[in-house]
Amino acid sequence: MAKDFAIVLNNGSVNAAVATALAAQRFRPIMLFLETSTQPSSRARAAFDQQVAQFKPYREHAVPMGYLSTLRNENLAGAIAADPRHGSLAGRQLLELLPVIAIGARYAVHYQAAAIYAGVRVGPLGDDLAQATEFTQIWNELLQLPCGQADLDVVTPLLELEPWQVVDVGFQVNAPLERTWSCLEEMPEPCWACRGCRARESAFQQSGKPDPIRVVRKV
Question: What is the mean pLDDT of the chain?
């Protein structure tokens, strides 16, 4: 079988939409949503479903992993920027990715996919970027050598970008940013007060691009 599939880890966020758009430029995407929320009809899942409708992947899967919600105190993957008051979150963010990449790898083997795309972003800071780059390299070596998947790559195209650069890339690749969710609350509308909303607003402002969610909501 031709290696034309890529597993895309998508949690409905801005990062996920941009990573999916980049993957779709090279591969036929298979979108994977890891259901870590205890609420099945979460806003993040709704955003994922909207992105599925946009990208029309070869397949899409939702994997129940609710146990993770009892192990973490922050939604690191959903926000597009970390709160600087908490310092570096790269280590904890990479720890969160361990079971996610593992599940993605299992689906990649099943579909004989060529790549696993993850929208993780740590920014250009030396220590965090070096740590995250090593993490990706270790996963690739683990899959390719002892696991015998020589042609499978873990791809993190947003790893060294600033949040505003992710938005900029998103506009360049026509990512459906209007079908993303950054709010940490489970409400019909974004609260625009939580850490996720503030990070999103800052990223769009710094990029000089209008947030399509803001535009739609105001009309």
Answer: 87
